[in-house]
Every structure is written in C-alpha cells, then in structure tokens.
C-alpha cells in the first residue's frame, strides 16, 4: 500500500508541520484500511457466588486492612487476620454451593468430596 501511494505532495511542501500532518493523514488512512477496528465483547466472569453480604464483608475487610496498616494496635491486626480467615471460609463455601447448584444431578457426589 505504501508503494502505491504518491508522496510528491508531502515532499513538495516546505513547512515541516504541513509535511508531518500530510504524512500522518496518509499513514492513518492506510493503517486503518489494513487494520480495521474490531469490536470485542467482554465475557463477564462467572461471579454468581458473590452475594451482597460477601460484598459488604469485603468492604469491611478492606477497611480493617487499612486500619491495620495505619495503626500500631495489635488488637486490630489480630481481628483483621481472624476476619480474613472467616471471610475466606465463607467465600469458599459460597463458591462450592453455587457450583453444586449448577452441576447436573447425575454426577456422583462422592467423587467431588462432599
């Protein structure tokens, strides 16, 4: 495509800014014809297990994290670590129950360890 383009109009200009603008316009026309804009739809992650209670708990966890980093109180740090472990168990259980709801009934549940 660049071989077929006439570059005389760019070379004949004396002003550098005009030359650059002409070159850029020509380049963009060729570029957009070779690489057209493609629209991609984003696949949203499967987050059916996130309940409003889990969202609130995650916000609380973030608050506790900030408090544990900004203060030197050992009680807050202990509470934060306990809160994280409880929240992790709740999230694990929510994921597991949501997965179990989507699985077909024919699957042997003993294979899944439940």
Explained architecture:
The structure is a single chain. This protein has helices at about 10, 15-35, 50-70, 75-100, 110. The chain is mainly alpha-helical and about 110 residues long. The chain has 2 domains: about 1-35, no CATH class; about 50-100. Helix 3 (about 50-70) packs antiparallel against helix 4 (about 75-100). It is elongated, with a radius of gyration of 30 Å. The N and C termini lie far apart (about 65 Å).
Indicate the percent of residues in helices. 55-70%
The total of helices stands at 5
- Tell me the Rg in angstroms: 30 Å
Beta-strand share of residues:
under 5%
Number of domains: 2
Q: How would you state the average pLDDT, rounded?
A: 84
How many β strands by DSSP?
0
> What's the order of the H and E elements?
HHHHH
Q: List unreliable stretches of 5+ residues.
A: none
Which descriptors apply to this entry?
mainly alpha; 0% strand; 114 residues; 5 helices
